[in-house]
Specification:
Beta-Lactamase; alpha+beta; about 50% helix; about 350 residues; five-stranded antiparallel sheet; elongated; homodimer; 7 helices
């Protein structure tokens, strides 16, 4: 026998069938329902006549073999009327009604079964639609919370690394992947290099291998020149577009850009609950990457201004020390400089 | 006659009734459906017998008067079986089936009508639920877009007023109110005053009346000390909590705070499509207010730093001018200062 756990009626569906069975039996008719192993799961009889159980079972097998949900009728004057209940594309139950030797009821029973069947399938369709929209709602709500959480943490006085780490940590809670990382371009000895700036989980690419991250960045640039918002690659449709080293099953990379200048990228690899990144992921990753880029832009401006200010203060101190050979006005200047330094440090 | 436009079956519902009528008529039975003015809207006959139209109409009136959706049966051997279809709490149609002089079918017809009725009501319930969740989804999606749009505009280099105006303009597109405004506390001659900093539409309170905005701010503080995230007041439940001047029908005010210090408030008045602000509004207004406060915090820090830097540069120039009686090193200093000024203005 087959394992039926996947192809059974849900408890709600079984309740509907039982309700229908009682209603039919109330009018003096005999009702049978079978599971897909042809075990009787519902049997309510109207006690006006006795049904041929073997004939009913044989009819059930015939209906199961037909695999359609069309209503069929057999027996003298078509007294046996039956159909399959199909859920998720497979037969989950077979309904048979014996309308009895008095053939006058058969046509009405057939129509009644038809109405029940339509209602059953409508319920199924509606339940699926509600489940779908509810899932979307939950997803959108999570995304809303994510963007809100990130944007309310955009105070420039906090550290760069902290903010980007928060973005990665929060994003991985919504998109279930093995790893997420943010790489930023930094100048090191006059060369621009991509440096891992934040990350969570295990990235599928070898991020310590500079050549590898450079190749990934170039591929992202390639995708962007063709008008795409992200680089997406996976073996879900047979083969990868690019050749990847390491343990990559699927990958997404989105740009971080500040004033339309590319400053880095956000990368995630190996989805845990799906086989490929989709349009929704592209939107979400780009949204988070944009927030990160805005933060970095603000933070850099803040950092530069701070460096300029401290430089200007040092110059001021030096210029006074170097040039003032006289003591006059010394205490005034000490007071002025102390006030400046105090004000600056209070606010940074 | 009543105007029936509000209490009619939808085209989809009418289609369901007509389908049911045809199925019933196919079994040789006569089918009638009436609108709530007792006009016949569906009439399909099985052509096995002729029905008493006057009797059917009288039964329809009796069913309409009963205002319930319970199935009723009248006539010899209960051959007339009928019920009301109730949508949105009112009768939108009346169904009557004449099962004919042969009384054997009546019980089965009654059960069939029962099954149809249950299916009809399930469809109605499901459609309402789908509409509800879809509405929530659309709302959440709009909120997501709003917060995203605002947070990606958080570059501190843009003006304060611009950013707050953008927040108001975008928020009013989602929450349909007559007016939204942001007030910020500013020091004017050692007195803190609430200044209108951005706004869109027409606010219900007289914002040029300082006393009025101060009173509003105090009421918001009151609400916050009782643990609430917002001040909400309306006359929807009979009376206002507070007395308001002007044309206020309902009002919401949420705090803007920076490092847990209150710096202002966001106010909206007079909803256009609902009678009162709800929990969802409180969440949304607080989310936008928080983003505004984060922006203001960053912007102020940036502005202060800029002022300090320019002050420091001026001091540097003055100190050199005042103290250096000799010309030696003059060109060097001019170069240094020019470089500084250039660097500062490039970055601001």
């Amino acid at each position: 026998m087959l394992n039926t756990s996947q192809n059974q009626l849900s408890s709600g569906q079984l309740r509907l069938v039982k309700e229908f069975a009682r209603e039919m039996a109330d009018t003096g008719i005999n009702f049978f329902a079978y599971d897909r192993d042809l075990n009787i799961i519902v049997n309510v009889c109207g006690e006006k006549f006795i049904s041929d159980y073997e004939g009913s079972a044989a009819f059930a097998k015939q209906l199961l073999d037909s695999q359609t949900c069309a209503i069929q009728q057999i027996g003298p004057s078509g007294r046996f009327i039956g159909c399959c209940l199909v859920t998720d594309g497979t037969v989950s139950a077979i309904i048979i009604i014996d309308s009895g030797p008095d053939c006058t009821a058969a046509a009405l029973v057939r129509q009644t079964l038809h109405i029940f069947l339509r209602s059953f399938q409508n319920d199924l369709k509606n339940a699926q639609q509600i489940e779908l929209i509810s899932g979307e709602l939950a997803q959108t709500y999570e995304e809303l919370m994510l963007l809100y959480k990130i944007s309310t943490n955009m105070r420039v006085s906090q550290s760069d690394a902290n903010f980007l780490q928060l973005a990665c940590d929060n994003l991985i809670e919504i998109v279930r992947v093995e790893g997420i990382a943010i790489f930023l371009e930094k100048k090191i000895e006059d060369n621009k290099k991509l440096i891992l700036s934040a990350g969570t989980g295990l990235l599928g690419i070898d991020y310590k291998n500079e050549a590898m991250t450079e190749i990934l960045f170039e591929r992202l640039l390639d995708s962007m020149t063709t008008g795409s918002d992200a680089l997406i690659d996976s073996e879900v449709n047979g083969i990868f577009k690019y050749e990847w080293q390491g343990r990559i099953r699927n990958i997404i990379a989105v740009p971080l850009s500040n004033n339309s200048k590319l400053i880095g990228m956000m990368v995630a690899t190996n989805l845990l609950d799906r086989s490929d990144f989709d349009k929704n992921d592209i939107k979400l990753f780009n949204a988070v990457a944009t927030e990160c880029a805005v933060f970095i832009g603000n933070h850099n401006l803040f950092k530069d201004l701070k460096a300029l200010l401290i430089g200007a203060l040092k110059s001021l101190v030096n210029s006074i020390d170097a040039k003032d050979q006289y003591t006059r006005g010394h205490s005034d200047r000490v007071a002025i400089i102390s006030k400046w330094i105090d004000a600056v440090y209070k606010r940074l």
